[in-house]
Write a structure and sequence with these properties.
435 residues; Carbamate kinase; four-stranded antiparallel β-sheet; 13 helices; 20 strands; globular
Length: 435
């Protein structure tokens, strides 16, 4: 008997029929002889609707009360799902995040899991019940308050439960068949991957791939959790995310010498990701002396903005001056511009320029370490398509470029083709969000 943790996102439990379909899948897993723990998100767009409602009541809702409000969405889903399972003749018990032992920091809206004590979950499993846990939420021991985990919170809940319970696999369900070489909504010929390394998945998630959130992938890698990304709408095998030295379940069952997929030759490029959520700020005419960049980014750091790419160029028009460009999430740009403008005289720069019409394209692959010409393929593909590159950033297994936002979808398609990633048939998207 295996212990399987399953996570279902908002599009998977969007309405009553969807909830009954998910309940059937859970019951089928139980019938197959497995213990099942489920982490569930709020129904459909419930979280967004609650945020809208909160903003109508108060322009700046109190963080504690906002968490109390938002955590209700998952409680609705878990109760309805447990009812649906009961109606199929199986016992199910629903638990809030705090009841399931999800202990977090006290940061409302962006709490991090610090411990998982699933005592009641284990008791329910031992008594033969299917366990349904509200995702996205936890409990802080010091303040005794409910907290929420922020973006990807339900994914993180599922992986944390799988780690604490030593589950055999954590299945993350969405409205696509697994992890693709690109977003199939943008690149219709994207190909589903059989497996991907946790290292590659971290880079893809960090650079815009939406099927898995980076916090969940990092938690899984740190705690040795096997993730299986699958579709709610089919029984097709999805994509396994394999940590270091982790065996592919299907290959490991065969009596062959190949039991560790991560030890095989990796493809040069695993996938192409795009991110349209960033803006670019350029500080023009910064004095080209030691400490200038440190002074700028010390101010930026105080705003809490998460900086991604940074490029510094010597300005030919003004001797002794340089331009510094960096990208950051669009919502953070206004506060950063405010602090930079307030300190213009102190910093000694000439001007600051804000651009929110950019898109980032990233090419990710573990094989980049041992193959030459990977960057040339990217640059030639964009050149032939007439797409201009504004910024470039690289890591050991990733190349990222910034282009115009209007060009980023076309850039993804031409680059995907240039690396030979296109499938012969179009990918199927069963709903509309990728979650």
């Amino acid at each position: 008997m295996a212990l399987i943790v399953q996570k279902f996102g908002g599009s998977s439990v969007a309405d009553a029929e969807s909830i009954k379909r998910v309940a059937k899948r859970i019951v089928d897993t139980r019938r197959a002889g497995n213990d099942v723990v489920v982490a569930v998100s709020a129904m459909g767009d419930t979280t967004d609707e609650l945020l809208d409602l909160a903003s109508q009541v108060a322009p700046l809702p109190a963080p504690r009360e906002l968490d109390m409000l938002l955590s209700s969405g998952e409680r609705i889903s878990m109760a309805l799902l447990a009812m649906a399972i009961h109606s199929m003749g199986y016992e199910a018990r629903s638990f809030t995040g705090s009841q399931a032992g999800m202990i977090t920091t006290a940061d409302h809206g962006s709490a991090r899991i610090v411990d998982v004590t699933p005592v009641r979950v284990r008791e329910a499993l031992d008594e033969g019940a299917i366990v349904i846990v509200a995702g996205f939420q936890g409990f802080n021991r010091d303040t005794k308050d409910i907290t929420t985990l922020g973006r990807g919170g339900s994914d993180t809940t599922a992986v944390a439960l799988a780690a604490a319970l030593e589950a055999d696999v954590c299945e993350i369900y969405s409205d696509v068949d697994g992890i693709f070489t690109a977003d199939p909504r943008v690149v219709p010929l994207a190909r589903k991957l059989d497996h991907v390394s946790a290292e590659e998945m971290l880079e893809l998630a960090a650079n815009g791939a939406k099927v898995l959130y980076i916090r969940a992938v990092e938690y899984a890698r740190r705690h040795g959790v096997l993730i299986h990304a699958r579709s709610t709408f089919t029984a097709n095998e999805g994509t396994y995310v394999l940590g270091e030295g982790m065996a592919h379940p299907r290959h490991a069952k065969k009596e062959t010498d190949v039991t560790d997929v991560t030890g095989m030759e990796e493809p040069v490029v695993a996938g192409v990701a795009i991110d349209q959520s960033q803006a670019k700020i350029t500080v023009v005419g910064v004095p080209d002396v030691p400490g200038s960049a440190a002074a700028i980014f010390a101010l930026v750091a105080k705003t809490g903005a998460n900086i991604d790419m940074i490029v510094q160029n010597v300005q030919s028009a003004s001797p002794g001056r340089t331009d510094i460009s960096f990208t950051l999430p669009k919502p953070s740009a206004a506060e950063v511009l405010k602090v930079l403008t307030a300190e213009k005289e102190t910093l000694g720069y000439e001007n600051v320029v804000h651009d929110d019409q950019i898109g980032k394209l990233s090419v990710v692959g573990a094989g980049m370490r041992t193959h030459s010409g990977v960057s040339l393929t990217l640059f030639e593909a964009l050149s032939k398509a007439g797409i201009n590159i504004e910024m470039i950033s690289t890591s050991e297994i990733r190349i990222s470029v910034v282009v115009r936002n209007d060009d980023v979808h076309e850039a993804a398609r031409v680059v995907h083709s240039a690396y030979g990633l296109d499938s012969e048939i179009e990918a199927t998207v069963y709903a509309g969000t990728g979650r």
